[in-house]
Specification:
This protein is mainly alpha-helical. It is built from four helices and no strands.
Length: 117
């Protein structure tokens, strides 16, 4: 026989039912006026306290810093690759030239203006 504790009551309910009951309780507390609402100062202090706890774990901070650096570099590589695909590479000092035969719109426009004359 297993010694595993079986969930009963609230813990045995499915997640949707738990959320619905919690939502109703929260609304009732607000109507009654007993619900706690954080002030801006309380929220600031809570965020500061949480940030200090996370920052105290130096190995964790190192790992997330490395991950951020990798993602930043990956995004930079993607942007550069996309930019290089859009613009054909040309050598230094080379001027871009377009002949009429390469651009059909220019051929159409020039033949129409010649016919109007």
């Amino acid at each position: 026989m297993e010694n595993r504790a079986k969930n009963t009551g609230f813990a045995a309910m499915d997640g949707l039912k738990q959320r619905e009951i919690a939502r109703q309780g929260g609304r009732a507390a607000h109507r009654k006026g007993t619900a706690h609402e954080f002030s801006a100062e309380e929220a600031r202090n809570a965020g500061r306290k949480g940030g200090q706890r996370v920052a105290a774990n130096r190995s964790h901070m190192s790992e997330i810093g490395k991950l951020g650096g990798r993602r930043s570099a990956e995004q930079r590589r993607k942007r550069l690759a996309a930019a290089n695909e859009k613009v054909p590479a040309k050598s230094h000092g080379e001027k871009e030239s377009v002949s009429g035969s390469e651009v059909p719109e220019l051929n159409k426009a020039s033949s129409q203006s010649d016919a109007d004359v």
